[in-house]
From TrEMBL:
This is Beta-galactosidase. Residues 1-29 are annotated as: Disordered. Its EC number is 3.2.1.23. One of its GO terms (biological process) is lactose catabolic process. It comes from Streptomyces griseofuscus. It holds the Pfam family LacZ_4. InterPro entries: B-gal_small/dom_5, Bact_Beta-galactosidase, Beta-gal/glucu_dom_sf, Gal_mutarotase_sf_dom, Galactose-bd-like_sf, GH, GH-type_carb-bd, Glyco_hydro_2.
Length: 970
């Protein structure tokens, strides 16, 4: 019996420990937890965070020794950070599988080898903790993977499953002023694991907050904020239903009403674009809870998802929670970083794939403005290996667990204006359990439509959702030509996943966006996915599946995000930002005007300041503000441009129009560019090099203008005093993840076929060196061993006094049935000369044929290192598109026509062979690729390959480069 009991009650001695672990494999959601209720960020009731350093012991099986009694000495145990995953803190290691269960499938049984983490924390109550009569307290767990059993001061509170959902236990009578012992046993595997087969790392632990909440007598329990918006009347109707009666006040709106009573007043609506929140208070006899109220009405009407009467175009991403060191244990700043990055990249929607996120993330979505599709913590994808036999969602024994998950999501998150759709889960097949969830959710919250991609006929859902459908099929759906059941044909369409952003890519974003813009039924989608789940690793840089010796794993399929694991935006995100621009700026550069279209769903253009600049050969000659009316959503205007500057020199001229934030916002500063358009005014004059220089031969060396060649092979050895090595035709690129494609796809995959053909080991046969007069002609045939097809390649060199011109003519021979990875030349330059790279062309980032919207024509500068995109698994990257000229390694190179520039301190072969970034060590040579063409990227690592017009077809080609010593090189 404890003498310092907070409530005066006796504490009990430990019970239950070690007496059975049936709960681990029990299909029920658990026992002892309180019913779910609304989550609120704060109140005036006391609370105590139990995050911090806990004692920790790992056992190999679920039957670990007892530890929950008071006075248990855990002094010899390790320490662990809570929130955290033990496998990321030196105890065991993470496992990555996409959809396969990493244990034998025998539901609900799990392996005997079931890593079990005992967590122990001793805490005192703060001095001001209220200990009055009738005061209670609850202990709340925000996320524990995958199954927990909890004791406080030796008394068992219960068990629970549902890793990314809140669980609360009444603890008031057990609390003591000092020396409270909280013991939590966490099992990595449980029956719940069968419901949590999301494509991600398996990461056990107490990975979200643990909090003790004081519950005052007459305190708030559950409440439901209903805040709708009538777009015709411009009014909002607020009704707050509360289990415990009280009053609701919203001073700014003059609202002061009892709970349960509706009130209608003029308001500004909430939208992702203008996230207007009103501060209110729910006050019961014992507690005051701040409310952040957003008025908005979501409906499916006329076959469209409408918010506040207008259809919404979802420009979304799928967001898993991820931190490269802490896994799914996210701090507020990381969550905010995600939201800010999304807002700054024109993203307006998030699918919380595939579980409800940390609740604070939803607060941020309310505040900064993002449409949210909140998804339940449910996926049973591994049952696809059994042709979906024994799928828990079609087995009534599991239905209580499914309903528990649905209720815990909806009850916890229902008061967020940002949430506009509920999702039953992901890739769980079909079955009665899902229907039961849908019915429960509809009854509890009829105000939000339902999503579930696995429901192809839309029996239980209100939107037709698909993942990875190709452009042609999406267009058919947009045209209502996709057939299907009548109910589905009347529903709006969402791509809940598309554009697989694994490695270099995705390609084809602009093509999708054009479809979304063209067909009303297509209400946008969510790129897969937001972030690479690479784990920071001392030797590998970022680790992926297999790096921890997993017996079953799916490699780097876990790294398929728009941001790298450290949240550095990948070129795919920069492309997505451009493609999503909420303002259309179009024109042809010579018309004296541009057309500006407001593509927002709800906001006018008053928050943006437009400007123009006039550029010649990439240099800005003049610039100024461009007055644009505050167009309403959907409106367009033709906006006159000023006259081009009178004194503009000859050259390639462009207008560049920018729309930037006119003032600081919560998510970016004034001047942040939201949209831009660039229009050519005059064309480029290609470089002309009259063949005035004569060939000279002496001592086995040929010279032509600034070029020096080996007289026997015709190989270029120097330009001026810059040594050149290995110049030759190149068609190989280190296949991207999207080139490699997904093994399960029916469509032919380029990467394996390229390698099968031998494009990575082309042989160069020298047929003739013809030196005479003003030209050196080198005839070759480039072909892989064992094949009869090849590329007849002729290099023709000419020069004027200072510049050397290479014209390359490529004629395919044989039966080519594949596109090429790339077509151009490669050459080596000494790295010692200069690391600086300057170019006039597309930039500043990398671009490929089907991912080039974000490439702005201009003068750019970088270093060779800076040109690289550090994809977690090394692969082709870093090409700069539409390059007119470039200066690097002591040379100036001009293209005729424009070319792709790639430069790196390792060869393509080294890039291809590397499995992790750290394997790439800079050598003494800068390997430069000057490409006439590149194959598109597509997103075949899970979706379609590049569209036909982005494929690099094998056909006769001619292209030229002009080389000269770079006058600016030191
Ligand atoms: C989808 C799935 C995602 C992810 C993606 C591929 O089928 O819903 O969770 O696995 O494919 O990266």
């Amino acid at each position: 019996m404890s003498v310092d009991s907070c409530t005066g009650n006796d504490t009990e001695t430990e019970t239950g420990i070690g007496t059975g672990i049936e709960y681990v494999e029990d299909v029920s959601p658990g026992s002892g937890a309180l019913p779910p209720r609304a989550r609120y960020a704060s109140s005036d009731a006391a609370s105590l965070s139990l995050n911090g350093t806990w004692r920790f012991r790992l056992s190999p099986t679920a039957e670990a020794g007892s530890f929950a009694r008071e006075g248990y000495d855990a002094g010899g145990w390790a320490e662990i950070a809570v929130p955290g995953h033990w496998v990321l803190q030196g105890h065991g290691s993470p496992v990555y599988t996409n959809h396969r269960y990493p244990f034998p499938v025998d539901p609900p049984r799990v392996p005997t080898e079931n890593p079990t983490g005992d967590h122990l924390r001793v805490f005192d109550l703060p001095a001001d903790w209220p200990c009055g009569d009738g005061d209670g307290a609850v202990l709340r767990f925000d996320g524990v993977e995958s199954c927990a059993r909890v004791w406080l001061n030796g008394t068992e509170l219960g068990t629970f499953k549902g890793s990314r959902l809140d669980h609360e236990f009444t603890v008031g009578p057990l609390l003591k002023v000092t020396g409270n012992v909280l013991a939590v046993r966490v099992h990595q595997w449980s029956a719940g694991s069968y419901l949590e087969d999301q494509d991600q790392w398996w990461l056990p632990g107490i990975f979200r907050d643990v909090t003790l909440l004081h519950r005052p007598a007459d305190g708030v329990r559950d409440f439901f904020v209903h805040a709708s918006y009538d777009h015709r009347a411009g009014t909002g109707t607020l009704r707050v239903d509360s289990d415990v009666a009280g009053r609701v006040t919203v001073p700014e709106l003059g609202i002061d009403v009892p709970t349960g009573e509706p009130v209608t007043v003029p308001v500004r609506p909430w939208s992702a674009e203008v996230p207007r929140l009103y501060d209110g208070v729910l006050a019961t006899g014992g507690e005051r809870v701040p409310l952040r109220i957003g008025f908005r009405t979501v409906e499916v009407a006329d076959g469209l998802i409408k918010v506040n009467g207008r259809p919404v175009l979802f420009k979304g991403v799928n967001r898993h929670e991820w931190h490269p060191e802490r896994g799914r244990a996210l701090d507020l700043e990381t969550m905010r970083a995600d939201v800010l990055l999304m807002k700054r990249h024109n993203i307006n929607a998030v699918r919380t794939s595939h579980y409800p996120p940390h609740p604070a993330f939803l607060d941020l979505c309310d505040e900064y403005g993002l449409w949210v599709l909140d998804e339940c913590d449910l996926e049973t994808h591994g049952f696809t290996e059994l042709a979906w036999r024994d799928n828990p969602v079609d087995d009534d024994r599991w239905t209580p667990a499914l309903l528990d998950r649905a209720a815990r999501m909806v009850e916890r998150d229902k008061n967020h204006p940002s949430i506009v759709l509920w999702s039953l889960g992901n890739e769980a097949g079909g079955g009665r359990g899902l229907t039961a969830m849908a019915e429960w959710i509809r009854a509890r919250d009829p105000s939000r439509p339902l999503h579930y991609e696995g429901d192809r006929d839309c029996r239980d859902t209100d939107v037709y959702a698909r993942m990875y459908a190709g452009h042609a099929e999406v267009e058919r759906i947009g045209r209502h030509l996709d057939g299907g059941p009548l109910r589905r044909r009347r529903l709006p369409f969402l791509m809940c996943e598309y554009a697989h952003a694994m490695g270099n890519g995705p390609g084809g974003l602009a093509d999708y966006q054009r479809l979304f813009a063209s067909y009303q039924r297509l209400q946008g989608g969510f790129v897969w996915e937001w972030i690479d789940h690479g784990i920071a690793h001392p030797k590998l840089g970022f680790a992926y599946g297999g790096d921890f010796g997993e017996e079953l794993h799916d490699g780097n399929f876990v790294c398929d995000g728009l941001v790298l694991p450290d949240r550095r935006p990948s070129p795919g995100l920069v492309e997505y930002k451009k493609v999503l621009e909420p303002v259309g700026i179009t024109g042809d550069g010579t018309a004296g005007a541009v057309r500006v279209t407001n593509g927002y769903d709800a906001a006018d253009l008053s928050a943006l300041a437009f400007s123009w600049s006039y550029q010649v050969d990439g240099e800005t000659l003049a610039s100024g503000p461009l007055p644009v009316p505050a167009l309403a959503p959907g409106e367009s205007a033709d906006v006159k441009l000023p006259a081009p500057p009178a004194e503009a020199p000859d050259g390639e001229a462009h207008w560049l129009i920018r729309a930037a934030l006119a003032a600081d916002t919560a998510w970016a500063e004034r001047g942040h560019v939201v949209a831009w358009g660039q229009f050519p005014v005059s064309d480029r004059t290609p470089p002309r090099v009259p063949a005035t220089a004569r060939l000279r031969v002496s001592d086995g060396v040929l010279t032509l203008g600034p070029g020096t060649f080996d007289a026997r092979t015709g190989a270029l050895t120097a330009v001026g005093d810059v040594a050149v090595t290995g110049l030759r035709l190149d068609v190989w690129r280190a296949p991207t993840d999207n080139d490699e494609g997904a093994a399960w796809q029916d469509a032919p995959r380029c990467g394996p076929r390229w390698r099968g053909l031998g494009l990575h080991r082309m042989r160069h046969r020298l047929d003739a060196v013809e030196a005479g007069g003003d030209a050196l002609t080198v005839r070759t045939r480039v072909a892989p061993a064992g094949r009869e097809l090849g590329l007849s390649t002729v290099y023709r060199w000419t020069a004027d006094g200072d510049r050397l011109r290479l014209a390359v003519r490529v004629v395919p021979e044989g039966d080519w049935t594949l596109p090429l990875p790339r077509l151009g030349i490669r050459l080596g330059l000494p790295a010692a000369r200069a690391d600086r790279v300057r170019w006039f062309g597309g930039g500043p980032g990398e671009a490929y044929p089907d991912s080039k919207a974000a490439a702005m024509t201009g003068r750019w500068e970088s270093t060779v290192a800076g040109l690289q995109t550090p994809y977690v698994r090394p692969q082709e990257n870093g090409a700069r598109i539409d390059v007119r000229w470039a200066e690097l390694g002591g040379l100036r190179i001009e293209g005729d026509p424009l070319f792709f520039l790639t430069a790196r301190r390792w060869t393509t072969e080294q890039l291809d062979a590397a499995t992790h970034r750290t394997a790439l060590v800079p050598g003494d040579t800068i390997w430069v690729n000057l490409d006439h063409a590149q194959h598109g990227l597509g997103s075949q690592s899970c979706g379609p390959g590049p569209l036909p017009h982005h494929q690099l077809r094998v056909e006769p080609s001619e292209f030229a480069f002009v080389f000269a010593p770079d006058p600016g090189a030191a």
